[in-house]
Amino acid sequence: MPAFIAWPKRGMPSRSELPGSIPRKRFLNALRRIGFVINTVGGKGDHIKVIWPATQKSISVDSDLRKDVLYYLLKEIEAISGIAWERIKEEL
Question: Which partner from 4, 8, 66, 76 sits 20 to 30 angstroms from 27, CA to CA?
Answer without folding.
Answer: 8
